[in-house]
Amino acid sequence: MKQLSELTREEKQQLFEYLAGFITSNKLNQFENVLEYRTRYVTAGIENIYQPQNASAVLRTCDLFGVQDVHIVENNNEYRVNPQVALGASKWLNMYYYNEGDFNTPALYDALRSQNYRVVATTPHRHDYSLDEFPLEPGPVALMFGTEMEGLSDWAIENADEFVRIPMYGFTESFNISVSAALIIRELTERVRRSDIQWQLPEEKKMDIRLEWARRVIKRSDLLEREFLNRL
After folding, report:
1. Quick one: which H or E segment has residue 33?
2. Largest Cα–Cα distance of the chain, in whole Å?
3. Which tens digit of pLDDT belongs to each residue from 152-186?
4. I need a labelling partner for 8 at 20 to 30 A (CA). Which of 16, 36, 51, 210 fits?
5. What is the DSSP letter of 78?
6. Residue 34 class from Cβ within 10 Å (0-12 exposed, 13-18 middle, 19+ buried)?
7. pLDDT beyond 60 at 83
8. pLDDT at 75
9. Domains in the chain, please, with CATH?
C-alpha cells in the first residue's frame, strides 16, 4: 500500500475527489473560496506565549487574514489554546511546534531562514520600520511575537533580520500581544495582496491543504484513506 507522502499530484487529486464525496458541497465551495486568499508570503512566529486567550486570538487572526502557517516556540511556557476564543481556527492552519530543547527560538529561526523568510521582530528598535513603511520585499516575511509581559527574548531580538513597530500616540507603552498581531498581520497581508508579489499558494500546495482540511472535517477519514490507498 502506498503512503500519502508517496502519492503523485494526480493521485492526490483522485484521493481528494474520493474524500469530497463525504463532504457537503457548501463546505467544498468554502474550501476553494478560502484557499484563494491563503498565503505563506507572510507567516507568524510566536515565542513562549502562555495565556490561552492570547494564544487563541493569534490563531484566529491568522486564519481570518489568510496566513496559513503558525510557528510556535515553547521554551518554558506551553502554548495552550482556548477553544472558545479560537473558534476552531487551529483546524484550518498548519501549526509547527519547537519544543525539543530548553531554548528553542534558534531552531525556529533556522527553520524560517531555510525557507527564505526574513525574520522580523515586532518590537521598537533603533533600526526599526514603522508598520506603514515596512518593505514587502525582498522575500517573504516571518513576524515574531513575544510574551505578554516581556515581549520577545533578547536572543530573538538580537538575531532578527529586521524590526517593525506599530505607531502609538498615547501614554501606555505597548499593545496586548493579540492586538499587536491583529494590527500587523492585517496591514501587511492587505498590502501584499494589493502588490505585484506572487503571494498566492501554488496549486500543488493548495491540494495538500485541501487534503488536510478534508481529513479534519470527515470522521474516521483514516479508514477512507486506507480504502483508497489499497486500490492503488
Report:
1. helix 25-35
2. 66
3. 899 999 999 999 988 878 777 677 788 889 999 99
4. 36
5. -
6. middle
7. no
8. 85
9. 39-200 (3.40.1280.10), 202-232 (no CATH)
Of 58, 65, 94, the closest CA to residue 79 belongs to 58
Instruction: Give the C-alpha separation, 127 to 152, whole Å.
Output: 16
Of 188, 105, 117, nearest to 152 (Cα)? 105
Length of the chain: 232
The model's pLDDT over 8-53, given as tens digits with 9 standing for 90+, comes to: 888 889 999 999 999 999 999 999 999 999 999 999 999 887 776 7
How many other CB atoms are found less than 10 A from the CB of residue 169?
4
Better-predicted residue by pLDDT, 48 or 65:
65
Nearest to 208, CA basis, from 58, 73, 24, 40: 40
125: cell is: 528598535
Residue 67 DSSP symbol: B
List the grid coordinates of 219: 470522521
Tell whether pTM > 0.85.
yes
Integer Cα distance of 73 and 28 in angstroms? 33
CA dist., res. 157 & res. 166, Å (int): 16
Q: Around Cβ 77, how many Cβ atoms within 10 Å?
A: 15
Which residues, 6 or more positions from 54, have their beta carbon under 8 angstroms from its beta carbon?
148, 176, 177, 178
The DSSP bridge pattern shows strands 42-47 and 118-122 to be: unpaired
Residue 197 CB partners (closer than 8 Å, separation 6+): 41, 136, 137
Q: Which amino acid is at 154?
A: D
